[in-house]
Amino acid sequence: MARLKPLPAIWIISDARNDAALEYALARLPRGSGVVFRHYHLASRDRRARFDQVKRLAQARGHVVALSGNARTARRWGADAAYGSVQVLAPGPALPRLVAVHSLWELAQVKRGDAILLSPVFETRTHPNGKTLGPRRFRLIAARSALPVIALGGMNSVRAKRLKWPRWAAIDAFCDKATPRIPLDS
Description:
alpha/beta
């Protein structure tokens, strides 16, 4: 498996909710961070055009770009990596894979990947009042992973420090002008 070297510690996950602020968010990310491009809300042609825009902006700042979907599409679109569930990512060419995991059972299914995005650690705006892992369960599952684990779900720099977890991803954390800029040494 081709590895991302070095694997970014901080990631932004894109979707309909943060699309309008995405350029602002990309500029706030520390150089060399990661972007997971989802944008499921767009039709195929529009999704591809938006991906190309985001990729250009991200790569200009040294960010790694992962496309949500299978590895073949990610390779064809020129993404640096692919992101998705075990089932979506299993087939395809050698390309770094970021695997979405929500339980110990799902973690056990991962046979091919470069990093795990384990979620939801905390309550999220996407799923308010939804079931979360919480810090303790997150750590117990993360300890079982042979791959680097990226915390996802209600994450921001304050929660990452409280969790004492160096690798994290967020949808909203970089889009709010009230959120402090994350320094490069975080």
